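Reviewer 2 asked us to include a model.

Predict the structure of this chain.
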Amino acid sequence: MPGALYCGVFCLGLCLLESSAFNLDVAETVLKYGDNGSFFGFSVALHQQLQPQPVSWLLVGAPQAAALPGQRANRTGGLYACPLTHEINDCKRVSIDEGVDLKKESKENQWLGVSVKSQGPGGKIVTCAHLYEARNRVNESLETRDVIGRCYVLSEGLKVSDELDGGEWKFCEGRPQGHDRFGFCQQGVATGFTADRHYILFGAPGTYNWKGILFVTNIDSSDPDQLVYKTPEPSERVPGNAGDVAQNSYLGFSLDSGVGIIKKDELSFVTGAPRANHTGAVVILQRDNVNRLVPEFILWGEKLTSSFGYSLAVVDLNGDGWMDLVVGAPNLFDRKEGIGGAVYVYVNQAGDWGSVHPTRLNGSYDSMFGITVGAVGDLNQDSFQDFAVGAPLDGDGKVYIYHGSNSGFAIKPAQVLTGESVGVKMFGYSFSGGLDIDGNLYPDLLVGSLSDTVVLYRTRPVIHISRTVTVSPQNIDLENMNCRHQVGICMDVKVCFSYTANPPSYSPPIMLEYTFDADTDRRQSGQTSRVTFLGWKTTDPEHQYSGVVELPAQHARVCARATLQVKDKIRDKLRPIVVVVSYNIKHPRTKRQAQGATLGPLLPVLNPMPPRTQKTEVNFLKQGCGEDKICQSNLQLSYRFCSRIDDATFHPLPRDSNGLDKFSMSDQKVIALEIHVTNYPSDAAEPQRDGDDAHEATLLVVLPSTLLYSALRPYNATEKAPPCIVSNQNASLVECELGNPMKRGAQIRFYLVLGTSGITLETTELEVQLELSTISEQLGLAPVVARALVVMELPLSIAGIAEPQQLFFSGQVRGESAMRRESEVGSPVSYRVTVSNRGQSLNTLGSAFLNVLWPHEIANGKWLLYPLRMELELSTQPQRPTTCSPVPNTLHLTLEPPHQQGRRKRETEQGGSPRQPRTYWERRKNVTLDCDLGTAHCQHFQCPLYSFDRSAVLTIWGRLWNSTFLEEYSAVTSVDVIVRASITVKSTIKNLFLKDSTTQIPVTVYLDPSVAVARGVPWWIILIAILAGILVLGLLVSILWKLGFFKRTRYEEAKVPQYHAVKIPRQERQLFREEKTGTISKKDWITHWNGDSDGHVPASA
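Predicted model (structure tokens):
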């Protein structure tokens, strides 16, 4: 059904306690039993006879009751009348239908009592036998038997008193027979009266191939309208917007009527067709001017085979003068939702049924919820009509009571009556209400069953209590000791009661029990009360005071008082003290009345709305809370995870790229949580806005199962850590008192030391919930979750060394195919890689592998380092063979024992000669051969370490490929060859982390200096140098010549004496030497100066 509104699980009320009570009395019920197997209770009706004297009756249909002697049948059914007593077997069969004319009829299994209705006090009664059989031409070959049904109308005294009474209400008799006309009429499956008592209604669902028909006829002889109204025959179908139902619809299976359904002051009729369109339908009909009931609107069912329209009731739920509609669909089934029956409630929208969206009430699985629905009057006298729903297969059967309201109706049932509480099965198959039969002006309810039992529930008067509570003084001043007879702080509490009820004439004295309960909210949270009552009874706790008052009549006001005293040294001085006053009617103890006794008056019941409790708060005069006396704190919290250096020193943990603290389990047995709480104003420009004292400021720390509270440490030596206690047994809740109050501008910083023994390999994150609380006002004080990542840092380390660390190459180039022995390759080298495990064994963590990147080729593919063999030794498993992959020595060279490997002799090899250096400067380069740089190609060796405990050593022997170095690097200064090693761990643990997992091992290679060939400078370099020198010299001379460097300074010729020399013979020179020793004499030579201008001196003898 489009737009249907569904109430919660089973109407929010099917889970209530059995026989949940409001004002239908479940203690003083009246039970009546019928004959076994008679279906006593298949239909019921409340009836009140006024003449000759008022008598109330419980009318019960028993359609399988044994036949009377004159009926000449086995089972015919009957109508029973039960008086209003506690006797269980005093029901009498009503004397109707006592004879039979077998030539015209048969009453065998006619089901008299299948329906029964009463007009109300002093009105008529109708009961029907829908399987009554009319016969023609009995015992003849053309004998016919037509199941037309018939009904009996009785006067208020349950007798035939006038011409309208009797059993001649057979509208299908004398009409065309056959199943396509009126031959299976089944009149009386449903019957009823209009509220104005003018009309009687009969449903005949078997007419016209079970299309069904509704008969309406006048039953008031004073009414001039004596016509019979019925729904149109198939040949008289009137086209219209409403349409019509088809064959096999069972129209007339249920019916009702009311004024204000289509038009406010006009009578309309409603009938159900539970098989129409395979879903069911409800047809709203009105009379036309030719005595027909014409469909005005059709409500269709929602689901297939739900039997929508099996039952229905017209009732004004919200008191607006428009009649609402309640429709049962007992066969609606939904296995997934656990639904077994439903009821649709349509609240009339001023006659516009097309705009009505029903509310669907769901029944429990297989309960047949909605097999009967009906108006039950105003049970609680709140001016709104109520309705009930039967569910005979819900346990032993239940009846749900729903109260009307100004918004329509209350979805939650006001009361649930159960068959289990009265020992009746199939309880709730039928019921009748809306009539007061015990004289207290509240309508009562009669419930039938399929177990030959009916139960009468009488309605208790409803008392409405008015109360006022006052406390003096209204505020608690902790500095004012105001107790009258002792030292202390006291308060007086007073409550005043009065009551009203309907009708106003109902005004008995009422005994009311009351109880004062102090600090209720605080005690419900497990804390002690801050006050005690003076003069409290020893039977009451100190925080309660109880008593009884008598309200003599309606509107009489009676008061009660009590005195409270505040205890000494209370901590909570901010939150108010709550005083709760509760009350209830005190009923005298009564004994259940004996069978046969008349019914006594019922005790009243309190109206559940409003609640029977009233709270009153008494506030403390607040200090440190600003001018408005409202403490508006501003507690703020920050945190940081730390590692512990020593008992009083902590260091923040490192953080990842997302800003989360990262905790490593490798070497930390505890973790500390630094907590910083402040109470500063949020806006320094407006400090009065918040930041007031935070009363009872506490911090609740909720620890995960992986962490345990260990200790508390102050932030520094000048500060004290707040007191903290463990609140539960497993140390997962820690409560810290930050101050009472935590003053404005205060801050607290401390460390929570937490044990990490609960952290497992599966732990990836730590979450600690930090929740600040205060009884001061602070919005948005939500819990903070402190998070830290957990990484399992394996304490593995790797280191490597080469021996020797310097290598030399020399000799001549040889090809790969010429190699037969490892000694022919080149200089030997060995690498030793050591992996250390400083922690636990890897048994539970995973498998470790040692990886070696071995540079076996240079970039152009020539051999670089040739791997010969590998040996892996585990410290805990020295004898366990290990295999690294791939296997080295791919050329299968003949290997030498490691101890015979020495430095290869320097000798000249036959074959090619080393490449001459290309340039002079090439010998100056340093070359690095590294796979990460792309200058070499590496072979990946992987060795399983298994679950080693302490250490593992891998030794790799190899040879420097001499030929490659002679060809490619003979002219370079040095070559660095890099071998890289790393550790990897294969594990299912996602947060496993290796800190020092890689290393690199360098070896430097040089050209052997003892065999290096000295080479001169090339001739063309010398030539270029000479020419360059001459050019530079010429340029220098030219420049000096330009500057006059070669120009000499000339002087004027001077006349100077000329010197002339004459050769002297040897003998003369000897004489000269002799003269030196004696007297000097004049020599025989002439010397003179000639001062001629030509400068020449002539020789002269």
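The longest helix spans residues 1019-1042. The two ends are 172 Å apart (CA to CA). We have added this to the supplementary material.
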